[in-house]
Amino acid sequence: MTSQDLMEAAGRALGTPVTAAAVAGIVDHTLLKPEATAEQVDALVADARELGAYSVCISPSMLPLRNANGIKVAAVCGFPSGAHHAEVKAAEAAGCVGDGVDEIDMVVNLALATTGRYRAVEAEIAAVREAATTPVVLKVIIESAALTDEQIVGVCRAAEAAGADFVKTSTGFHPAGGASIHAVELMAETVGRRLGVKASGGIRTTGTALEMIAAGATRLGLSGTRAVVEDLPT
Questions:
Q1: 38-68 as b/e: b if 16+ CB within 10 A
Q2: Among this protein's residues, is 28 annotated catalytic?
Q3: Would residue 72 show up in a list of annotated catalytic residues for this protein?
Q4: What is the pTM of this model?
Q5: Among residues 84, 83, 99, 171, which one has the least CA distance to residue 132?
């Protein structure tokens, strides 16, 4: 696919011509390094505002975020391993909601996913959904690079049944890797337009971001947002 073809495919998926503002407008500008400081989070928010990002995505310990001023705030839950009791994830989500977040990005229990225990996956997602009720947006991180196609489909179906709003590819911390075009396509095919699809993990270039959008991603998780959007048309 040529650069022009990719721009056109991404534009069709976005429903608007590809511009820096259009792409930034679906980005969760992210800082989840465990050593991140409050000052770095402040800089993240300022950067997100300048770039026109949709939201910032941060760790729960950085909440409440008092300087968001119109930027939506997402926090992670059960991050990064997902190997937490459902009750712990629900309590963490409830705390984040109490601290004013707009969105929760929770990690599924991968052991449940890889052994095909999708009802149990659904139950833990439902527990978090109950703790973070609508209008809080719930995204479910499935760690797609660690799953087979069958498991990706099974977890996506569990997320939909539990009332999630998005399925998300990756934490960006798993050794198996981050987002892939194949995973995004499969996730989008599974959930249709009923849920959003967030591509996250290892998306560092404009071309990769546009490929993810063309494949069906309706949200992007980026730590290097500026490098992705700075060469796009204004």
A1: eeebeebbeebbebbbbbbbbbbebbebeeb
A2: no
A3: no
A4: 0.98
A5: 99
**pLDDT, tens digit, for every residue of 43-97?**
999 999 999 999 999 999 999 998 888 899 999 999 999 999 999 999 999 999 9
Neighbouring-strand partners of residue 76? 105
Report the alpha-carbon distance of residue 35 to residue 136 in Å, rounded. Answer: 27
The H-or-E segment that residue 140 falls in is: strand 137-141
pLDDT at 69: 85
Alpha helices (H) in 132-222, listed in sequence order: 149-161, 181-191, 206-215
Name which of 117, 21, 101 is nearest 66 in CA terms.
101
| In the predicted structure, residue 1 carries a pLDDT above the cut 90 | no
If you search the block for the tokens 């001023």, which residue do you land on? 69
Q: How far, in Å, CA of 188 to CA of 229, rounded? A: 23
Give residue-wise pLDDT tens across range 128-137.
999 999 999 9
Bond prior to 175 in cis (omega within 30° of 0): no
Helix, strand, or coil here: 166? strand
Place of tokens 């009332």: 163
- Please indicate whether residue 168 is annotated as part of the active site: yes
Using alpha carbons, select from 122, 123, 112, 198 the residue that is nearest to residue 147.
112
Query: What domains sit in the chain, N to C, each tagged with a CATH number?
Result: 19-201 (3.20.20.70)
H or E element: which one contains 141? strand 137-141
Position 56 scores a pLDDT of 98
- State the catalytic residue, choosing from 28, 89, 105, 139: 105
Kindly name the residue from 28, 139, 165, 198 that is annotated as catalytic: 198
